Amino acid sequence: KGVFLFGELAKKNPSINFIARVAEGPDRESFIKKYNRVNNLDIRTNLPIDFDEKMKIIRNEYQSVDVFIMPSLYPEGFATVVVEAASSGLAIISSNLGTLPGILNDSGAILLEPTVINFSKALRGLVQNRTKLKELKTKSRNFALKKFSDKNAEVIYNSYKTSHGKNKT
After folding, report:
1. Around 4, how many Cα atoms within 13 Å sit in the side-chain half-sphere?
2. For residues 94-119, average pLDDT
3. Whole-structure pTM value
């Protein structure tokens, strides 16, 4: 979806630490091979099978960062990860493609044409302006609280559990 753009972003910004959560997919091994020696990029691939344990790890990862980057290179459907990022109070830098602008409307997210130059400029701006970063994080969290109720979170959570076999009959 944009994992190579993310890898290039890490290479071009060596003073910023990056975490890449890379799931199964056709580019996974190529990405790992190409970027596994980038010192400021922590590539994480393995998650436990147990759903609750997996969600704890993902939650902890969200809590350990300031900015969530969604570098989708093509229009896609609803991306729950941006809702998770907003709910975690992260500043969001996202592609301006597909449903992302609609999901993130009024969230404070920075929406851009997905290029390394655009994402680098936005990310560096936030790193250099901690006040702006803090404002975007607060706006993101407030947006999630307003737009995504506990009921919505429960529906999403149960959907994940069902799709991962816990509630299947």
Report:
1. 9
2. 94
3. 0.84
